[in-house]
Design brief:
Elements lengths: L3 H13 L9 H18 L9 E4 L2 E3 L1 H4 L24 H14 L4 H9 L2 H7 L10 E3 L1 H9 L5 H23 L5 H14 L2
Antiparallel strand pairs: 1-2, 1-3
Helix pairs in contact: 1-2, 1-4, 2-4, 2-5, 2-7, 4-8
Length: 198
């Protein structure tokens, strides 16, 4: 399982790799981390990162990443330098994060905020607080899992899932095609080699 800061590093790299209609601010980054976690539970059948996600006034937030960024960042774009020391993701993890990026990169920070406010994980954790209230209740991983499992998977993430399943099938087939180890023959050979060395 990777750290959320490594996911943030990869999202920042993706945001810097092409023209961006909306800068990758902390607000936008936090929502993208939430979508990475949510879709990972469905497409990869596991959490992507271990850190908790909390319901804040402007939507889901990963406090560990939020507090790791400069306090005076405001609406300024996030730069890759902030995450230089974070470990890189594996190739497979980068493919998955890229699929989530492709699915959500067209959403502005405000649009992502509004979207998460309409979804049950944030709404249930926020409860009956007023829209301008304060709070930071944990959004349960089970609530995220149940919600995302009930949603239509965006095209890029669905492609990633199909490719992952096919790769697993291919690996299983190749493993099945390998010759079986004859344990008796291997033991006899080991005895012979051991005896010849005396």
């Amino acid at each position: 399982m990777s750290l959320a800061i490594s996911v943030a590093k990869e999202l920042t790299r993706l945001a810097d790799s092409g023209p961006e209609p909306d800068p990758l601010t902390n607000l936008r980054l936090q929502k993208l981390l939430y979508y990475v976690q949510g879709w990972s539970l469905v497409a990869r059948e596991s959490q992507f990162f271990p850190e908790g996600i909390e319901a804040w006034r402007h939507g889901p937030v990963v406090p560990d990443v939020y507090h790791g960024l400069p306090k005076d960042l405001g609406c300024d774009p996030i730069i890759q330098d902030y995450f230089q020391s974070a470990p890189d993701l594996s190739a497979e993890e980068r493919r998955f994060v890229s699929s989530v990026w492709e699915a959500y990169k067209g959403y502005s920070a405000t649009a992502l905020r509004q979207k998460t406010h309409q979804e049950s994980p944030w709404k249930d954790a926020w409860g009956d607080r007023p829209a301008d209230g304060t709070g930071n209740d944990l959004i349960g991983i089970d609530a995220i899992d149940v919600f995302f499992a009930s949603q239509d998977m965006p095209g890029p993430i669905e492609r990633y899932e199909r490719e992952r399943i096919q790769m697993e099938r291919d690996a299983t087939r190749k493993l099945a095609e390998r010759p079986r180890i004859n344990k008796a023959k291997l033991a006899a050979r080991a005895t012979y080699v051991s005896g010849s060395l005396r």
